[in-house]
Specification:
- Keywords: NAD, Oxidoreductase.
- The chain is of the alpha/beta class.
- It folds into 2 domains: about 5-135, 3-Layer(aba) Sandwich (Rossmann fold); about 140-340 and about 365-390, Dihydrodipicolinate Reductase, domain 2.
- Helices cover about 30% and strands about 25% of the residues.
- It contains 10 helices and 17 strands.
- The chain has helices at about 15-30, 50-60, 70-75, 90-100, 115-125, 140-150, 180-185, 190-205, 340-355, 365-385, and strands at about 5-10, 35-45, 65, 80, 100-105, 130, 155-165, 210-215, 220-225, 240-245, 250-255, 265-270, 280-290, 290-295, 300-305, 315-320, 390.
- It has a 9-stranded mixed sheet.
- Helix 1 crosses helix 9 and helix 4 runs parallel beside helix 5.
- The longest helix is centred in the C-terminal third of the chain and has 20 residues, at about 365-385.
- The chain starts with a strand and ends in a 12-residue tail after the last strand.
- Bound molecules: nicotinamide-adenine-dinucleotide.
- Nicotinamide-adenine-dinucleotide (NAD) binds near residues 15, 17, 46, 135 and 227.
- Nicotinamide-adenine-dinucleotide binds near residues 45, 85, 192 and 231.
């Protein structure tokens, strides 16, 4: 693609993710000039006037509105970012699809499997492109791990350990944002972090077939925070308390689908928002008969690797980010220069816009969100019943494995 194409961007919600989406769009022409894609920041919506003002004065949007419907009705908008709290996602995404707007939606796309499937149906009806905020997929070290798995360098996958342990709500003074309310967020850490872990496992290793899970609420009440104020990292002294309605912690045992090199693989997935110590301790470890890899988001640019059973040097070698890994070379010319979270969002924006403009489709889609939602729902059911739950369809001729 070398023709210039201007893409009109509408942003819905100017919170943490909204700002990142805006920055990511603006960075695409700098990082990927050869694509000729020029995002134009047309209009941003938020119910907080100060955030609309910020979108215009600082992020560079031409217009602002308190009503997201105006973003969807705007003929100059080609693509929409949906960065609202979870309870608004389905309503906004379905309206975007019906308005013929391609959309990039933050995870979790819906609060439940049914809601996520209703978005998928609207997308299919209207033929729009989608992307989902599964940003950790784009880390160059993760792409390298995926390549090693895909090329068979780890041999048959024996087991996978994914643990997404965060401390943002470890302090009982941590604000009761919309994330802790079932109506507004759906599930708790299952939707927030576990869904990321599920997506990473699927992206790098393969889909998950069945699951057994347990969950807990560790801190049952927190000080309230109004919508559109502060962030979920805020600590509030005193103030009115409200109930935490969804889980703080989840642990699961999973079986991968009997396909490819993960035929017999078993995994553990753990997620917490109340861990003391790890702040964003998002780890993926993959063990195979011929080698293993380990990644930790807190050390985004490093991948620990061991290849072969008979190495003189036993144990893991730390490999640092380098131009051969994923999209690293688009950001830094030589190895060892650090990339950050925002860069992953730029890669996500590029993949979305490229798909919208008729280029290669390497974007995550609403189908990936449905797959993650199916796992989250199966985990919730398993936690409630104590039984293993099926999370995917068995391959033809295969029996479900528990
Ligand atoms: N991909 C990731 O790693 C990642 C990280 C953080 C958050 N998220 C997801 O992003 C989404 C947003 O999270 P956040 O942390 O940016 O939230 P936030 O609380 O920082 O921002 C939410 C914004 O939505 C606005 N809003 C509320 N109602 C609205 C309405 N009717 N119309 C327009 N705007 C409205 C609020 O005023 C606020 O500005 C969530 O779904 C969350 O799960 C994803």
């Amino acid at each position: 693609m070398n023709q210039q194409r201007t893409v009109g961007v509408g942003l819905i919600s100017v919170g943490w993710m909204g700002k990142l989406h805006a920055r990511a769009y603006s960075s695409v022409p700098y990082v990927y000039p050869e694509l000729g894609i020029k995002p134009r920041l047309v209009v941003a919506a938020d119910t907080e006037q100060s955030r609309v003002d910020y979108a215009i004065s600082t992020l560079g949007f031409e217009r602002g509105t308190l009503d997201y419907h105006e973003v969807l009705a705007d003929p100059e908008v080609d693509v929409v970012s949906i960065c609202a709290p979870n309870f608004l996602h389905a309503e906004m995404a379905i309206a975007a699809a019906e308005a013929g707007k391609h959309f990039w939606i933050e995870k979790p796309a819906g609060r439940s499997l049914a809601e996520t499937q209703s978005i998928e149906q609207a997308v299919a009806r209207n033929g729009v492109e989608t992307s989902v905020g599964f940003n950790y997929r784009h880390a160059p070290a993760i792409e390298r791990a995926r390549q090693l798995v895909g090329d068979g360098r780890l041999g048959e996958i024996t087991n996978v350990r994914a643990s997404f342990l965060a401390g943002y709500a470890a302090d009982p003074r941590a604000a009761l944002s919309w994330r802790f309310n079932r109506e507004l967020a759906g599930s708790g850490v299952l939707a927030d972090l576990f869904s990321h872990a599920v997506d990473l496992c699927s992206h790098v290793v393969g889909s998950i077939q069945s699951i057994s899970a347990a969950t807990n609420v560790m801190i049952p009440a927190r000080p309230k925070l109004s919508m559109g104020q502060g962030t979920h990292f805020d600590l509030i002294e005193g103030g009115e308390m409200g109930e935490v309605e969804n889980e703080d912690y989840a642990a699961a045992l999973v079986r991968f689908s009997p396909e490819g090199l993960a035929q017999r693989a078993i995994g553990t997935i753990e997620a917490s928002r109340v861990a003391i110590g790890p702040q964003c301790g998002y780890r993926l470890e993959i063990y195979g008969t011929e080698g293993s890899v380990k990644w930790d988001y807190e050390r985004l640019n490093e991948l620990e690797v061991v290849l072969g059973r008979n190495n003189e040097e036993q144990g893991f070698t730390t490999v640092i980010g380098s131009p051969g890994h994923g999209e690293y070379s688009r950001f830094q010319p030589g190895p060892g220069n650090a990339m950050g979270f925002d860069d992953l969002k730029i890669i996500e924006a590029k993949k979305f816009l490229l798909a919208v403009c008729g280029g290669e489709k390497t974007n995550s889609t609403i189908a990936d969100a449905v797959a993650a939602a199916a796992l989250v729902e199966a985990a919730e059911k398993s936690a409630a019943t104590g039984d293993w739950q099926q999370a995917g369809k068995p391959a033809q001729g295969q029996k479900m494995q528990y």
